[in-house]
């Protein structure tokens, strides 16, 4: 849109009138950085009108602002490098492949100087197909198969994050047979509970990941790895406290505990562990009231935390890794839908609500059903009427929980055929997508400088039927 947005933020707890001209400022921050609006409210991404994209490529479709991804990757690489160089160390940025992965994405990561964390044989296969160097890959997961471990060792991955006593033995056996020394880190339960959804908080005791600091379990695991010195090299400890985190306080506690544990290894075994992985889970803005930290602020805060903890422990600062998967690709994504049915109802609270049904749903974005995740939506090709309606955007699947935007506002004249754009869908939408109700998965289209590149094509009915036996 040609006018400048007015200053100020929407009142916490309210839903801005998303297509009202005066409230455009509220949504700009949650769309990719190369999103524009014309005077009539029609949206373009990376110089391409979304109406043209929909006409050419159909809906639903995942759209990625490629330059936005690159800018965010560079920001994490450069800011963490700067912040940790200032305390006499270094930092590696591992993109978490589970957020979104395809060969084009892997190549982009390589071009921007990032590393890659994979957690399955399939993700490793994508990295190998893209020609990503094995030494810049880490293999994660709480129950790696023997085939996955063998593939990782054969490809020379830079680290395997071991998650149990049994897995230490498996990796050692594979490395010994291959005649190599496999670099490993130990996944640690630090006991830090991030302020996030129960299913994505990953460092408290009662969950499946890692070995506990409590009761000597981690010390025993470290001794076990060090006892396999002919097959394993212990790089350090790894922690991941959760996802969609907006503050650094949890990292402070986790870092102190991990550094204390690494100091104990130095005292007990005479080995200084060279690395420390603090994980990631950095949050992004899904709705206008979300307030994530910038890469610069997070880098400065984490570097200060690690520096202080190492000074207190009297040990050198290790090389630090972080894994900002969602924070790199999530904000760069927009999912484009077409409205099919508009149905006014009387809601349970006896206030009018309109159900706006689109041509996708929980098969392309299961996060609202899985986590109660919030999203924002806008009409993509026009400003719409000044009058707004309370809207719930739902999908086409045979589930009452098939909801994309639970509480939103749309123009009162929203109608069948309109295009809806849902921002912040670059992470954990395509990677969690399914073929529920035998609905083919949408394409992933990368937009840059007025051009579209198909990163993943749209699935077809023939693709679904190809899996059938004779």
Describe the structure.
The structure is a single chain. With 470 residues, this protein is α/β, with parallel strands linked by helices. The chain has helices at residues 24-28, 50-57, 66-85, 103-111, 121-129, 146-155, 165-178, 217-226, 249-269, 295-313, 325-329, 367-371, 461-465, and strands spanning 35-37, 43-45, 48-49, 61-65, 91-96, 115-118, 137-139, 159-162, 182-189, 211-212, 232-238, 275-280, 319-323, 333-346, 352-358, 378-379, 388-394, 403-411, 419-423, 444-448, 451-456. The protein folds into two domains: 21-60 and 331-465, Lyase, Ornithine Decarboxylase, Chain A, domain 1, CATH 2.40.37; 67-323, TIM Barrel (Alpha-Beta Barrel), CATH 3.20.20. Helices cover 30% and strands 24% of the residues. Strands 4, 14, 15, 16, 17, 18, 19, 20 and 21 form a nine-stranded mixed β-sheet that branches. Strands 5-6-7-8-9-11-12-13 form an eight-stranded parallel β-barrel, surrounded by seven helices. Strands 1-2-3 form a three-stranded antiparallel β-sheet. Helix 3 packs parallel to helix 10 (295-313). The N and C termini lie far apart (55 Å).
Secondary-structure class:
alpha/beta
Average pLDDT rating: 90
Instruction: Quote the distance from N terminus to C terminus.
Output: 55 Å
CATH superfamily of the largest domain: Alanine racemase
CATH fold-level name of the largest domain: TIM Barrel
Backbone CA Rg: 23 Å
Proper CATH architecture of the largest domain: Alpha-Beta Barrel
- How many β-strand stretches? 21
Strand content: 15-25%
Total helical elements: 13
């Amino acid at each position: 849109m040609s006018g400048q947005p007015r200053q100020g933020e929407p009142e916490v707890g309210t839903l801005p009138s998303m297509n009202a001209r005066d409230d455009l400022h509220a949504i700009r921050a949650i769309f990719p950085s190369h999103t524009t609006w014309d005077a009539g409210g029609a949206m373009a991404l990376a110089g391409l009108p979304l109406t043209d994209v929909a006409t050419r490529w159909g809906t639903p479709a995942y759209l990625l602002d490629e330059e936005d991804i690159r800018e965010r990757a560079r920001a994490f690489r450069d800011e963490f490098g700067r912040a940790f160089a200032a305390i006499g160390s270094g930092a590696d940025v591992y993109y978490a492949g589970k957020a979104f992965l395809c060969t084009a994405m892997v190549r982009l990561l390589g071009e921007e100087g990032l590393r890659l964390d994979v957690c399955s044989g399939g993700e490793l296969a994508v990295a190998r197909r893209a020609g990503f160097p094995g030494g810049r890959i880490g293999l994660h997961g709480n129950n790696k198969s023997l085939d996955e471990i063998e593939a990782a060792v054969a490809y020379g991955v830079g680290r395997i994050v071991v998650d149990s006593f049994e897995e230490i033995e498996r990796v050692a056996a594979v490395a010994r047979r291959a005649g190599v020394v496999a670099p490993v880190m130990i996944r640690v339960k630090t006991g830090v509970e991030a302020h996030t959804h129960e299913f994505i908080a990953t460092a408290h005791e009662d969950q499946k990941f890692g070995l506990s600091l409590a009761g000597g379990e981690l010390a025993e695991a470290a001794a076990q790895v060090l006892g396999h010195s002919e097959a394993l090299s212990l790089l350090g400890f790894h922690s991941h406290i959760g996802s969609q985190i907006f503050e650094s306080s949890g990292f402070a506690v986790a870092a102190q505990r991990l550094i204390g544990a690494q100091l104990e290894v130095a005292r007990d075994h005479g080995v200084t562990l060279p690395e420390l992985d603090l994980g990631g889970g950095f949050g992004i803005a899904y709705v206008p009231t979300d307030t994530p930290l910038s890469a610069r602020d997070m880098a400065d805060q984490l570097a200060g935390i690690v520096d202080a903890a190492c000074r207190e422990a009297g040990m050198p600062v290790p090389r630090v890794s972080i894994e900002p998967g969602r924070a790199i690709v999530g904000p760069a994504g927009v999912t484009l839908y077409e409205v099919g049915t508009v149905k006014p109802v009387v809601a349970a609270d006896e206030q009018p609500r309109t159900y706006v049904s689109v041509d996708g749903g929980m098969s392309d974005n299961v996060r609202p059903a899985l986590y109660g995740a919030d999203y924002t939506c806008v009409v993509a090709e026009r400003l719409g009427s000044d009058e707004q309606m309370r809207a719930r955007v739902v999908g086409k699947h045979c589930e009452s929980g098939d909801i994309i935007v639970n509480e939103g506002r749309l123009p009162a004249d929203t109608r069948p055929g309109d295009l809806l754009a849902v921002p912040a869908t670059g992470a954990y939408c395509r990677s969690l997508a399914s073929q529920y109700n035998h609905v083919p998965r949408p394409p992933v289209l990368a937009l840059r400088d007025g051009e579209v590149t198909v990163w993943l094509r749209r699935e077809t009915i023939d693709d679904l039927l190809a899996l059938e036996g004779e």
